[in-house]
Amino acid sequence: MAFFLGLIIPLLGLRLAQARSAYPSLLPSNPFYFTKEGVRNLRRAFTFGSVSKADLELRIADERLAEIIRLVNIKSVDQGAVKDALESYLENLDLLRAHLTDSKAGVQGLDKLLDRLVTTVINHGLSFNELNYEKAGEAKAALIEILESGVDRVQSLEELRNRIKTIVFGYHDPLKELQALELLEPINDFLKEDLLISLAGNIQSNEIGFRSIENLPGNAWARLKIIDEARERVNDVVLRSQIAFLRQQLLDKLSASGLLNGIVVAEEINNIQKKLSNWNSNKGGRLLEQVKFSLAEAQKALAAGDYGVAFGHASLANAILNNFIFELSLTADNLLREVIFLKKDYDLLMGDKRSVLLERQILELSDLVKKDPFNDRVIRGIREVKLILDHARQ
């Protein structure tokens, strides 16, 4: 007991930020790790307000991830210690989720918290891609659930999308961008729109091809789905064919891997059917028929035990349906702001490469969206300009 007090008492006089960095080398495999946990619990006890509590849990999650990575890199460490550390990380996320749920939209400090949340979810998710543990997959899923709960508290989805873009594009690495996008696959399509168009651009410029991604760590099913979604975002026939060829190569590899089974495919089909059944609009007849046809083909292949073909049809149905719902959800204000953002991105990215033709296209889009915002040419034109600007960003 005296030894324990000798370790803890000096820490009580430190500021919480200093306490956070105490015992930087103390890992969960160390018998004295309980002292580090004691300091964390003290920090929790003296932190008040749901936003501050959530922010503290984000910081502790950073610490725990660093510990997990260090444990993995120490070959002599018992693997049970890594699994226990992952369990503690998941418990940490449970606390984070609870405090985030208690945080009310518009509360002071929430915007900065959400900035940190987006950074944590993406960076931690990418780190877990490198860990071959079942609990690492659970951690990634939990992170996305937390991000989705945070989406309900943002005052502007456009601001959150820009935060996500800033982080992902900040990697300056098409492969990391792809891994981040597959991690974010379950979230609101509005938040992924620019990332999907960028993915299409990276495929077009051969920054991403089968050889570069066939063995890339990540979720192979999510990878196929987001590549299908990227294809739905572009109109260029050649690019669509290029993306279709890549997705077929990935589908063939996935089919041969033995990772697909009837349960996975049936769940995917069921999720799309639920989404489709909740859609009551009388619009999009042709597109919805395509979705239904692809689902029917998926069910036939599933019944025949051809899981790869079944998943491919389901993925295509999901991409068509998601894009249709996304486009229908856009308001006139959304579209007008999209064009305004295009002009800002153009000014930022083009520099001395300014294009009279591209400027004219943006101007024409601005005029069209004011007169006839729901004209099919608006969203198509916006995406075409984004694809051009994405090449300038590269």
Lay out the secondary structure.
Blueprint: H1 2-12, H2 16-20, H3 33-45, H4 50-73, H5 79-102, H6 110-129, H7 134-151, H8 157-169, H9 174-183, H10 189-204, H11 210-213, H12 220-232, H13 237-257, H14 262-277, H15 285-303, H16 307-329, H17 332-350, H18 356-371, H19 376-393
Helix pairs in contact: 4-5, 4-6, 5-7, 6-7, 6-8, 6-9, 8-10, 9-10, 9-12, 10-12, 10-19, 12-13, 12-16, 13-16, 14-15, 14-16, 15-16, 17-18, 17-19, 18-19
Mean pLDDT: 85
Q: Proportion of β residues? A: under 5%
What would you say the CATH architecture of the domain at 260-329 is?
Answer: Up-down Bundle
The structure class reads mainly alpha
Helix content: over 70%
CATH top-level class of the domain at 260-329: Mainly Alpha
Q: Segments where pLDDT lies below 50 for 5+ residues?
A: 1-24
Q: Looking at the structure, what is the overall shape?
A: globular
Describe this structure in words.
The chain has helices at 2-12, 16-20, 33-45, 50-73, 79-102, 110-129, 134-151, 157-169, 174-183, 189-204, 210-213, 220-232, 237-257, 262-277, 285-303, 307-329, 332-350, 356-371, 376-393. Among the domains are: 260-329, Substrate Binding Domain Of Dnak, Chain:A, Domain 2 (Up-down Bundle); 332-393. The chain is mainly alpha-helical. It is 77% helix and 0% strand. The longest helix has 24 residues, at 50-73. Helix 12 (220-232) runs antiparallel to helix 13 and helix 18 packs antiparallel against helix 19. It has 19 helices and no strands.
